[in-house]
Amino acid sequence: MAAQPPPYPPRDYRRAQREQARAQSYYWRSLRRPSILGPLVVIVVGILALLVELGKLTAPAVWEWYLRWWPLLLIALGMISLGEWWLDRHSPYAGRRRYGGVLLLLFLLLLVALGERGFHRNGFPLWDGNNFFLHFSGDQHWSSYTTSRQLAAGSLIQIQAPRGDVTVVPSGDNQIHVEEEASVYAPDDDAARRALDALRPQLEVNGTSVTVRTASRDDGRANLSVGVPADAVVSVTSGRGAVVIEDLTTPVNVTSSRGNVSFLRLKADAHARMSHGDFSAQSVAKDVSVQGRVNNVTVSDLGGGASMEGSILGDLDVSHVASFVHLQTGHTEVTMASLPGDLSFGSGNLRIDGAAGPLTIATRAKDIRCTVVSGDVNIENKNGEIVLQVAGQPGATRIVNQNGAIELTLSPNARFNLQATAKNGDISSAFALPVNAAGSGHAVSGQIGGGGAMIELISDHGDIRIGSGEASAPSAGKKERDARRLRAPRGTQPVIQTQ
To answer: Is residue 469 domain-resident?
Structure first.
């Protein structure tokens, strides 16, 4: 008689076995030490984010550093893992540590860094259709095209370029001249010809209203060079591409989503609204303004004023502005009557060499240095040093600093009334005024040279130094970068070329 198979264990017994195995797994897991990598990465990312918010670092600089040195993080990951293995080699409870979450975070940060570099160097990310993946769609093909049209006096010209660079210059006659250089990626010549025909610029004239428009295609771009009559008013709307406006005598307005904007040798007001890209304005006779999100700003030799409002992700350099200067970002506001010298603005500093007041500065987390300043001055700062050098007789001056020193230099022959208070610091003065103790700090007040404008200095945590010396003339300023001149090749017939 065959042996009977053993009976199956009761259902409750099998459930008890599973629960016992699960409890034992939890027990052994509770005895293992978790890896230090996760908390360490979170702390480092948090510190970098805090420094960016405080203005000590800029996001583009952080991403650029990470994009260059990210392999070092993998080396550090391996060294920390090796150290943890060494510490656990004799532990009976040591188990395998998992680093998948940390590696995924590093990979995602690498993708963000690649995109950030693409935004700031090319005007669009590396994975944009015109810059990366389309290389796998076929060969690149080009064509050039030219058209002209007679215009009425005082026409309003609107240029719409979704993808491609735009250059606008005077035409020298009463006509508009449009030159296009288009490029597409296509698998064969027939597909390329159809795509290039679709990109051909459309010129519409309705009385004094003129529109120049190119199509938006993911597989190509169209660069435009437009010559306009001297009395035409120009408005440009650009999607992805640089915009250069040169030598016009009428007001100019530019709206750019991604790309650099340059104004060169204009005779009227010029305004730009941007989302990404660099901005430059050189030798403009009237007012210049830029709004939005800008990478780097360079402005020089203006006959009018300069207004810059929004987010500046990189550096700002302004020099030789005949009228007002107004700068407003998320944490900083600067205004002055004129700027014979230079102004530079970065992630952690603000420098002004030669300014005519009234000068007003309100910021935080920046070192401020103002030399050869005349007129009234009002400066407020929270975390950083303030250095002010006054030219000639001082105007009404008020400087308030929450955390940082204040250094003021006046002419030896200056006449003024002084009220200085260092709530938690020392005061030193080159002028004959007694310094008195005030609580945990010091204070000084009095009249120099028979009195004059009121100077008020207040430092919550920091020393106050009042020096004597003659101000030097403002520097001539650094040479401005030459603007890029983007020209489409001339031609009268469409030509297809294949790479």
So the answer is: yes
C-beta of residue 394 within 8 angstroms of C-beta of residue 376: no
pLDDT at 179 over 90: yes
Q: Fill in the amino acid letter for 341.
A: G
Question: Contact at 8 Å (CB) between 154 and 233?
Answer: yes
| pLDDT tens, residue by residue, 465-476 | 999 887 665 444
The answer to whether the predicted template modeling score (pTM) of the entire model surpasses 0.85 is no
Range of the domain at 405: 331-480
On whether residue 346 sits in a domain, the answer given is yes
Nearest to 306 by CA among 278, 277, 335: 335
How would residue 45 be classed by pLDDT, with cut points 50, 70 and 90?
confident
Q: At 244, is the secondary structure helix, strand, or coil?
A: strand
Q: Classify residue 218: in a domain, yes or no.
A: no
DSSP state of 28: H
Burial of 107 (0-12, 13-18, 19+ CB in 10 A): exposed
Interhelix angle for 37-53 vs 59-88, to 10°?
Answer: 160
Whether omega before 358 lies within 30 degrees of 0, making that bond cis, reads yes
Asked if residue 62 is part of any domain, the answer here is: yes
**What is the per-residue pLDDT across 184-219, written as a single tens digit (0 to 9) for each?**
888 888 888 888 888 899 999 999 999 999 998 877
H or E segment and range at residue 466: strand 464-468
Q: Token pair 């430059």 is at which residue?
A: 280
Q: Is the pLDDT of residue 131 over 60?
A: no
Tell me the β-bridge partners of 51: none
Question: Which of these three, 107, 122, 137, is where a domain ends?
Answer: 122
Between 89 and 365, name the one with better pLDDT: 365
**Is the per-residue pLDDT at 48 higher than 70?**
yes
Q: How far is CA 405 from CA 109, 256, 327, in A?
A: 38, 41, 24
Residue whose structure tokens are 């990404």: 276
| Cβ–Cβ under 8 Å, residues 344 and 33 | no
- How many domains in the chain? 2
State which of 73, 88, 122 marks the end of a domain: 122
